Amino acid sequence: MSDGGEVLLTASLEELPVHAWDLENGSLMQSYRSAASPRNGTCLAGKELLVSARPDKKMVQMWTWSKDTVHSKSFTTEPIHVIESSHRGYCLVGGGKSGCVHAWQIPTGRLVRMWNAHFKAVSALAFSKDDALLITGGEDGLVHVWNLMEVLDVCNIADAAGNVPSNAKPLHSWSQHTLPITSIAVGIEGDLSLVATSSLDQTVNLWSLVDGLHMRTISFPTAIHCVVLDPLDQAIFAAGADSVIYEHSLVPRHSNETSTSSVESSVGAGLLKGHSGSVNCLCFSEDGSLLISGANDGNALVWDVFSKQCIRRMQHSKPVTYINVLGKPKSILLRGQRPAKKGSKEGGLPWITLQKYALWKQEEFPSVDADLDSAHDLFQPVLSGGKKSNKRPKKATKDEGGPEGDERTLAIENESLKKAVARAREDARSWKTQFQELQLRVASQLPEKL
What we know:
Elements: E1 2-12, E2 16-22, E3 28-35, E4 42-45, E5 49-54, E6 59-64, E7 72-75, E8 80-85, E9 91-96, E10 100-105, E11 111-116, E12 122-127, E13 133-138, E14 143-147, H1 148-151, E15 172-174, E16 181-186, E17 194-199, E18 203-208, E19 214-219, E20 224-229, E21 235-240, E22 244-249, E23 262-265, E24 270-273, E25 279-284, E26 290-295, E27 299-304, E28 309-315, E29 320-329, H2 374-378, H3 402-445
Parallel strand pairs: 19-23
Antiparallel strand pairs: 1-2, 1-29, 2-3, 4-5, 5-6, 6-7, 8-9, 9-10, 10-11, 12-13, 13-14, 14-15, 16-17, 17-18, 18-19, 20-21, 21-22, 22-24, 25-26, 26-27, 27-28
C-alpha cells in the first residue's frame, strides 16, 4: 500500500493531533485530530489503521489515512495504557491498568480473550516477527512470553467475561529487572532470536527468545525509557531521562553467551546528543539507515546511523511520546485535500468497533477433540484481498440446493479440513520426535566441557 517514500508519525500525550511528516524532506503532510498518546500507547494495525489508547477516557481510537478525523471510537472496561498490533494486522492487544491483557480480532473487533498477565499495570507489549508469541512487560518489573496459540485457543473455555483459565501459563518469565518495564524490542528471527527489555532500573537486559535464557545485562547512568535493536541485531540504541541516546555494540558475539549471563557497562558507548529533555521513543527507518527519536522537548530528530549526526528536526509543540515510520500510503490525505466521502473507494474501510465484553456463547466453542486450529482461524482476514462487499448475499433457490445443500457442502468441506489438519499435526509430531532424537544424539557426542 506504499506510494513511494516514507512517512514519520509523531504523537503526544497532550490533546494534540498525530502529525504525519515526509521523512525525506521533513515537511508536514497531515495532522490527525483528537489524539492523546501515552508512551507505548499508539500503534499501526496493518497499513491502513492508526490506533491509539486513551486511558483518561477508557477509550481506544482509530484513524484511516483518508480522513483527518477519528474513524471510530471504542470503550473498554478499564483504562488501556499500552496497545500493540500483530505485524499482519489481524490481532490487536491492549494492556490495562489492572495488569490484564485484552486481545481483539481485527477487522471484526471481537474481544477474543482477557487474561491477567501482571500484578500491576501492563507497561510494554511486543509481538515476535512471526506473530506467534506475545511479550508483555509490567510495572511489577516482570516480563512474560506468551504462546498465542495456547492463550487464544477457544478450546480453553473462558468465563463470562472472557478470562482465560488459571492454567494458562507463560512460555517464559523473566524477573531480572527490579523496577517497571518501559520498552521491549524483538530482533530478527534466526538461531538466536534476541529480545531487549529496558527498565527504570537503569538497565537493558538481553534474552534468547528460543530458550528463554538471560544473555547479558547492560547498565546505564540513567533510567531507560526506550530501546531498539538495529536491523542486524549488532547493536542496541537506548535512551531515557538524561536526553542522551546510547549506542551499545553487541558484536563480537560468542556461542557461549547464550548460557552465561554477564553485566556490561555503557561506558564507552556511542553517544547521540541533540535533545534537551527526556527521550521517550526510538525507531528506525525501513532500511535501517536512519534513527528517529522523540523527546519531552517537543522535537523528533532524525539521525544518520553511520555518521551519528542529526540531519533533520521536526518540531512538535508538546512532548513527543510516539514515533513510527511506514511506507507512504496511497490513500493518505494531504493537507488541503478534502476528506473522502463516506462510501467512496478512498474511504471504504469498514467501521470497526472493539467489543467491550467477550460475548461468548457455549455453542460457539468447538469440542476439545475437534481437529481445528482455533486461534489460527480467529486471526484470518474476513474476506480475501481485504475487500468488504456491500452486496447482500443472494438467497439460495430450490435448484441451487437451498440451505440443506449448503449445509451438506459445508459439512463435507469441514470433514476434509479436519483430516488435513490431523495429517499436519501427525507430521509435526513426527518431525518433533526426530528433532529430539537428533538433539540427544548430538548432545551425547559432544564433550562435557567445551
